[in-house]
Amino acid sequence: MGTIVYYTTGLLVLSVFIFIWLERKYPYTKGMPVFRDGFWVDLIWYTFIQSYFLKIFIFDYLIEPMRRSWHLESMHWLDHWPVALQVLLFLVIHDFYIYWFHRAQHHSKLLWRTHEAHHSNKEVDWLAGARSHIVEIIVNQTIEFAPIVLLLGPNSPVVAIKALIDAVWGMYIHSNIDVRSGKLQYVINGPEMHQWHHADDKSVFYSNYSTKFAVWDWLFGTAYLPGRKKPRVFGLPYAYPRDYFGQHWFSVKRFDEEELVAKYPLFRTYHLSRLRLAKWIFGGIGWARKLGLAGSPGDKPANGGRMGQRVVESVAEGTESAI
């Protein structure tokens, strides 16, 4: 599988630049910056760090022990199938599963804790889909890749091809591109329906669960596509932590981030470390805000935490000693 990984990686990187260009050329939501709020959390923590370690954990410590114990690949059930047909089989089966699991996450308070991070971005672009809770990734990717590895072996090209399709399609449906796919949207999912899924709008909280094939939503009555109307706001209807670790802890224990900032000096130091680092690197808060490393002055304090917001603003303005 070594050679094909070079090709799939190259296509993935190329896709990133294509999506960024298309977002600039044909924006769904006009005026969204390339480095929108939360961009670096999604890129560094979720895309690079989390993905790297979870890949090792899922493939080496979950799937590989199953493969060694069960020896299913020795049955050669799918070996005679063309690679394209193998990919299509796993693509459709997994997408059908994802529709129902995704739907369950929106209907279960417990499962919603593993999914709310994915909906927390206030601006949705090609990278927004990378923000997913650790538990959600472990469950979904184990169920996705275990059948492939168990039946075809760890060196099957289907693993790399399926991973590429997942990544590119994930970027596509979240991309800030004004796509008008017409009747194709009844079959193939795209930004038209998935941008609505990320809207902070009660009418779509239980709609548009499909990932790749929109046909599931139309078949099972969960499709929402109001013509050319677009969402006004995105994200969650409640305050949510901006920090990677805070986002994961929030799924276990609810807390008011700004109150903790104001009350506990140790948490304040940790919470403001990113802001101080951004100021040190870029020589001021202005460029940090432009690059999405810090919030803008008009950001709403979490749950109305005015004191915590004053502390954050004091660091931004270099007047922390006044607090």
How would a crystallographer describe the biggest sheet? none
Q: Mean of the pLDDT scores?
A: 89
- Secondary-structure content class: mainly alpha
How many structural domains? Answer: 2
Global outline: globular
Number of continuous helical runs: 13
| Rg result | 21 Å
Distance between the termini: 58 Å
Strand fraction band? under 5%
Q: From N to C, what is the helix and strand string?
A: HHHHHHHHHHHHH
Overall strand count: 0
**Share of helix among residues?**
55-70%
Describe the structure.
The chain is mainly α and 323 residues long. It has 2 domains: 2-219, no CATH class; 255-322, no CATH class. Helix content is 57%, strand content 0%. The chain is built from 13 helices and no strands. The protein has helices spanning 2-25, 39-70, 83-107, 109-112, 134-152, 157-174, 191-197, 215-219, 244-250, 257-263, 265-282, 285-290, 306-317. The longest helix has 32 residues, at 39-70.
Topology:
Layout: H1 2-25, H2 39-70, H3 83-107, H4 109-112, H5 134-152, H6 157-174, H7 191-197, H8 215-219, H9 244-250, H10 257-263, H11 265-282, H12 285-290, H13 306-317
